[in-house]
Design brief:
Elements (H helix, E strand, L loop, with lengths): L7 H10 L4 E7 L3 H18 L5 E7 L6 H7 L18 E6 L6 H14 L4 E4 L10 H13 L3 E7 L6 H15 L11 E4 H9 L12 H11 L4 E8 L12 H17 L1 H4 L10 E2 L14 H14 L1 H7 L2 H16 L8 H17 L4 H23 L4 H17 L1 H9 L11 H8 L1
Parallel strand pairs: 1-2, 1-4, 2-3, 5-7, 7-8
Antiparallel strand pairs: 4-6, 5-6
Length: 442
């Protein structure tokens, strides 16, 4: 069980409330502008869809300096405005606590899960605090599969702008699907439903003080649920409208922590993924429909400029991380990027091998991990730039077909991964730097 002690005010609240059937968790940091709407949707969802169950909303806050906590505690939805079929047995409790530990979403989740376990909750839903498209129905879709169909983990499935979620689309979804054999489309989506027994499993883990405590929590939760055989499904939530960013903006910390968590879990669960050779669909609940999405402006030039700098400054690291043929192709792409962006393109198979090479370099520690993961950023930006150029005139369904083709390539390259992972394929020889060569000559 997780050893971190709950804050005193959380312990007092748990003692007063004593028991809850449902816990809804909302991590936050300076989200006063949006969290009131999210909290009202949670109140309405609990009252409308689960009137016979006792629900508690818990805001785990990372030290906000705005009025985030006040927005949570003052938010409510009048039952008379919901046209309820039956009157809720109790009101929905709203609580807000600061969490302790490493700053990040994972530490917030830890507090939420500890409270859910202490209250004996049957199901817990966690949602982001910056959502503008959230509705009361989301909580029905995240919680009902657990409460009525005995699922343990409900992942979100929603429509997003074709350039929102590029870390998911280019790395995390294809790799997770190829490794563990389940097509969970949004493995780092931000909204999840979790059973009481899976919460207890999460709290047993000892890796809460790693990058899991920051951006790695979503893929950590998803991977454990899949790899350890818990019952997993998805629920269609419509559009995800939130404070989206240009994928060319600085997402470095998120990329390093998410991908680092994926690679670390690969090491732990190698006996699981090494036996899986294909993927299967996952049950999807909810009614699918088309939605309108916010546009996202993408600066391709900035991404390619970062890639060109990477080619100049990171060649030594890449030569150790990548297989020789992969590295040669990356160098050729650097020359292409220097000539212009109009027809810049990274082939799906090359990109797949870049990711798999990095995973194996991480596993075999060919490069210090503090250098390896940051060196992936320019390559990732190059892949996103290539994807934007290629799909600029495509509609969302066509873009989804492109992502599906990439996923198939990741699955086809599983033997390539297995050979490198076990050492049957020789690792890329490290190219000596000029200083190293001079030292050898001396």
């Amino acid at each position: 069980m997780s050893h971190t002690v709950l804050p005193a005010d959380a312990l007092r609240a748990a003692h007063t409330i004593r028991q809850a059937d449902i816990v809804i968790g909302i991590p936050s940091f300076n989200n006063a502008r949006t969290i009131g709407h999210v909290t009202r949707a949670a109140c309405a969802g609990a009252a409308k869809y689960f009137p016979d169950l006792k629900s508690v909303i818990i805001n785990a806050d990372g030290g906000s300096t705005d009025a985030t906590a006040e927005a949570v505690l003052s938010a409510r939805m009048e039952d008379s405005h919901l046209l309820l079929v039956s009157t809720p047995l109790t009101g929905v409790h709203r609580l807000s606590f600061p969490y302790h530990g490493i700053p990040g979403k994972g530490s917030a989740f830890r507090l939420i899960f500890q409270m859910a376990a202490r209250l004996g909750a049957k199901a817990c839903a966690v949602v982001d605090s910056d959502l503008r498209s959230i509705t009361p129905e989301w909580f029905d879709l995240l919680l009902r599969p657990i409460l009525l169909a005995n699922f343990d983990f409900v992942a979100p499935y929603y429509h997003r702008h074709k350039y929102d979620g590029t870390i998911t689309n280019s790395i995390v979804y294809p790799l997770t699907r190829a490794l563990y054999g389940l097509r969970v489309r949004q493995p780092i989506g931000g909204e999840f439903g979790v059973s009481g027994r899976l919460i207890r499993r999460y709290l047993e883990r000892e890796d809460w003080e790693t990058d899991v405590a920051r951006y790695g929590i979503d893929i950590w939760m998803t991977t454990i649920a899949i790899a350890e055989g818990y019952r997993v499904c998805q629920s269609f939530l419509g559009a995800k409208l939130h404070d989206a960013k240009d994928p060319g903006a600085d997402l470095s910390a998120m990329l390093h922590q998410v991908v680092g968590s994926v690679f670390a879990l690969m090491g732990e669960y190698a006996p699981v993924w090494s036996r899986r050779t294909s993927s299967v669909p996952v049950d999807l609940f909810g009614f699918r429909y088309d939605v309108g999405l916010d546009s996202i402006e993408v600066n391709v030039g900035r991404m390619l400029s970062a890639f060109r700098r990477g080619c100049e400054e990171l060649s030594e690291v890449w030569s150790k991380a990548l297989q020789p043929e992969t590295h040669a192709q990356v160098r050729a792409l650097g020359r292409q990027a220097a000539e212009g962006a109009a027809d810049f393109h990274i082939d799906d198979r090359l990109w797949t091998r870049v990711v798999l090479d990095f995973a194996c370099a991480h596993h075999h520690r060919r490069v210090a991990r503090g250098h390896l993961l940051p060196s992936l950023t320019p390559l990732y930006l190059a892949r996103v730039a290539s994807f934007v150029i290629e799909t600029r005139d495509l509609i969302s369904s066509q873009v989804e077909e492109r992502i599906e083709r990439l996923c198939q390539v990741f699955e086809e390259e599983k033997p390539y991964l297995a050979g490198q992972w076990t050492g049957e394929t020789a690792p890329a020889p490290a190219e000596a730097s000029r200083d190293e060569q001079a030292a050898l000559e001396v």
